[in-house]
Design a protein that fits this description.
This protein has 386 residues and is α/β, with parallel strands linked by helices. It contains nine helices and 17 strands. 32% of the residues lie in helices and 27% in strands. The strands form four sheets. Strands 1, 2, 3, 4, 7, 11 and 17 form a seven-stranded mixed beta sheet that branches. A five-stranded mixed beta sheet has the order 14-13-12-15-16, sandwiched between helices. A three-stranded antiparallel beta sheet has the order 8-10-9. It is globular and about 60 Å long. The relative contact order is 0.16. The chain binds adenosine-5'-triphosphate (ATP) and magnesium ion. The site of adenosine-5'-triphosphate has 20 residues, from helix 6.
Length: 386
């Protein structure tokens, strides 16, 4: 138990069953030089707090709090008041005092595009984008929010042009996130694309380096799986497949007539091995998911002739399912047989190893490794506070 537990005052706020928080801050001044990231997920709300030390970032505190079903839909928060109250209770339970936080959004309603524009100053590009963005994103202009970034080192485009990554969505989706955070009493310094916050975590963990060859990033969530193929620090391809842990769990509940908690336990212990009990129920969902992932990778390779893909990184709660990496590896190799000239693809779940961890969080936090990478990446964006 953390020493800080001793400072814990009586509280009337109760978080849902299954919540896990590191500890409650006792000495508020110790929160200087820390920053906070928030990740609203359909299965759980995640909070990560990092401290900046001379060596770099250290995970100082965290929370993983289950969300009731139906609170999120395709990346939007359906009930910002309830979710905002849940965030408020979580932050209170952690004893956090930060007002400013980093956050992210994802899902099928976030649209990404790659375009080429004339090489101009950033200011001119920003002005040009007011006209360009509505041409590329099928969202009414007055309801659109977008952002963009020039992508360096892209080959095969005309001399006088530059490659630009554009990403946009409906204002009303972002508004649901803003409303929940406002309700909780915090303000976002940024709401980023989820695969970019995760990428920042992978870089901080030393798993990937910017400029490295393209790699796939798979986020196995509660309601969906996000497939991103990252290159030059941006997603070259980004797709959300509407199959997540919820579908595997529900298939088990229906076919074995067991409670959801038991189904979850089965999944966490047996995973997606070819188990006689589980395979008939989850098999169809699993093969559909494996097929979608493999086909997306194949699509990327067809679209980008000459490109190779050496690594697949798995994040999100589902990345911790036993045997998922082997199953996925076999499926992708099957689809790519004869297409990849290079070494066989390596599929790897990413956890928190490589990250400096507050010893007060151990050993519990290791259970949440791949779930916390989104919130961690948002906290990392905040940089070192003044
Ligand atoms: N240790 C574990 N082993 C296997 N599965 C786990 C583990 N921990 C959590 N999960 C499962 O992973 C699911 C997805 O977790 P995650 O927090 O990544 O989803 P989410 O971000 O809330 O969902 P979405 O991305 O769809 O909004 C959880 O709902 C849970 O069923
Ligand atoms: Mg998620």
């Amino acid at each position: 138990m953390s020493l800080l537990e001793r400072f814990r005052p009586a509280t009337h706020i109760s978080l849902p069953q299954g919540s896990s928080i590191g500890f409650r801050w006792g000495t508020l001044s110790r929160q200087r030089r820390t920053s906070v990231g928030i990740d609203f997920g359909a299965g759980a709300l995640k909070v990560a707090q990092i401290r900046w030390t001379r060596q770099g970032a250290r995970l100082e505190n965290y929370a993983v709090v289950p969300m009731d079903p139906g609170r999120m839909e395709e990346g939007a928060i359906k009930d910002p008041i309830t979710v905002g109250e849940l965030l408020k209770a979580t932050l209170a339970e952690m004893g956090l005092t930060q007002m400013m936080v980093g956050s992210s959004v994802g899902g099928p309603n976030i649209l990404v595009r790659h375009i080429n524009l004339p090489k101009v100053s950033e200011q001119d590009m920003r002005a040009a984008m007011k006209f360009e963005a509505p041409q590329h994103l099928p969202i009414p202009e007055d309801q659109m929010v977008y952002d963009f970034t020039p992508v360096p080192d892209v080959t095969g485009i005309p001399e006088h042009q530059t490659a630009v990554f554009l990403c946009g969505t409906h204002k009303k989706l972002i508004d649901t996130h803003l409303a929940a955070m406002t309700r909780a009493g915090v303000r976002p310094t940024a709401i980023e694309l989820d695969c970019l916050t995760t990428l920042r975590s992978l870089e901080a963990l030393g798993v990937v380096q910017t400029g490295q060859a393209p790699f796939a990033l798979l986020d196995f969530g509660e309601l969906g799986t996000r497939i991103s193929i990252m290159r030059h620090g941006v997603p070259m391809l980004s797709r959300t497949v509407p199959t997540g842990l919820h579908h595997l769990r529900t298939a088990l509940v229906d076919s074995l007539q067991i409670p959801a908690v038991e189904a979850e336990q089965h999944l966490r212990t047996k995973g997606v091995a070819d188990d006689v009990d589980l395979a008939p129920a989850i098999g169809p969902w699993l093969s559909q998911l494996m097929e979608s992932i493999s086909r997306s990778i194949e699509f990327f390779l067809i679209q980008n002739r000459g490109a190779t893909l050496g690594r697949v990184y798995m994040v999100g709660g589902g990345a911790m399912l036993p045997h998922l990496a082997e199953t996925l590896s076999a499926s992708i190799q099957g689809v790519l047989a004869g297409r990849q000239e290079v070494e066989p693809l390596r599929v790897q779940p990413v956890g928190l190893s490589g990250l400096d961890l507050n010893p007060d969080l151990l050993p519990k936090v290791t259970e949440y490794g791949s779930i916390l990478l989104g919130a961690l990446g948002s906290a990392l964006r905040e940089g070192m506070p003044e």
